[in-house]
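Sequence dictates fold. Next comes a concrete instance:
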Amino acid sequence: LDEPTNHLDLPAIEALEERLAAARAAVVLISHDRRFLETLTTRTVWIDRGRTRALDRGFKNFEAWRDKILEEEETAAHKLDRKILDEEHWVRYGVTARRKRNVRRMRELGELRKAARERKRPVGKVAFSVNEAAGSGKRVILAEGVSISFGGRAVVRGFSTEIARGDRIGVVGPNGAGKTTLLKLLTGELAPDDGRVSLGAGLQMITLDQRRASLRDDDRVADAITDGRGDWVTIGAEKRHVASYLKDFLFKPEQWRTPVSALSGGERGRLALAAALAKPSNLLVLDEPTNDLDLETLDLLEELVADYQGTLLIVSHDRDFLNKTVTSILTPDPSGREGQWTEYAGGYDDMLAQRGAAPAMAADARGPAPALRKEQTEAQPARAKLSFKEKFALEQLPLRMDALTQEIAALKSALADPALFGRDAGGFAAKAKFLETAEVALAAAEEEWLALEMKREALKAE
């Protein structure tokens, strides 16, 4: 199966997962969907710089293994006193730094989700205080009793919400549920049949659609960034050459003159993202942004979204991406009532914990789904809280991570001494071994902390 989840909705992806998990046949998958790979794979093959590397474990273990290999290569290069000068150094070895920064970002996202839970009213009872509404510049979108129908079918009915500055809203649901329609209503692109949508003052909105329609094959890569107006772009208060700006999106320096038609699917995705973020905005609308992106580009997209200071509206079927980026989820109501949408604080897994089932087609929701929700509700008390051991680990792991980080820095500083090996070969070897052990321990501690923190957030949302 070559990218089987591209353009599938969430119910279809989860049905495919169940079918493949039950199959007795051998399965070979190419995919960028992390959750899909983690659920199904028992062995991983990594194609890296023209060679294949095999891991006799599933994708769940791949990224830590890959990062360890890249860190070992970088350490070996320093031991030989070689400085890697080409641009590939940043592209490849930046992966591990991004992963470590993502641990910090997950902490920050947890705080944002906590704030969202405290601010949002109970599900289905949208009511906003006068004081909140009066907060100048804080309200981005206010929808009041919004409805729209097509061909006699209600796509959105009586929907109300308030989106504040800095919110990150994910929209999920099956194909045909009206996700893009809801997005267009909220951004003012479509007028509702009933109700009212008010947009905040001073909004500068940029949209990245799933078809990447803004890219023209005949243009140079640079033209997509500057709209054909020279080779310089202003980002914030800084004027930068387009080649320098494109480097931030993993492009090589010489590619800025390349025609768009020569780019791969992943490169086109990065270029569309770079073009969108080059324009000033405080509201970013992403419609299926992860389609056709490779894992490296997905890492970059997660980092860029996490650092974005404005408000985000994201339609996506990528569960892992939603877990790492959004503060709340909009999805069709679990009752299956036509046109009804419900908002849940947190990411995708938080939404599942609160509603008891994944978004499905309306017919499914009216059928066996209630029994499934009852089963899951009955099973939930067994995992209603963290164990004492888990709570203790959450308190102690950050301290251990800090200590390991300091130890690693000290060891790297010692190994950077070019005279150490000649002076004390045994000491050099011992420090190198200690460094390897400390780096493995740090990666394990980060992964354990991240898993526990996400579990804590999911339990808190129930």
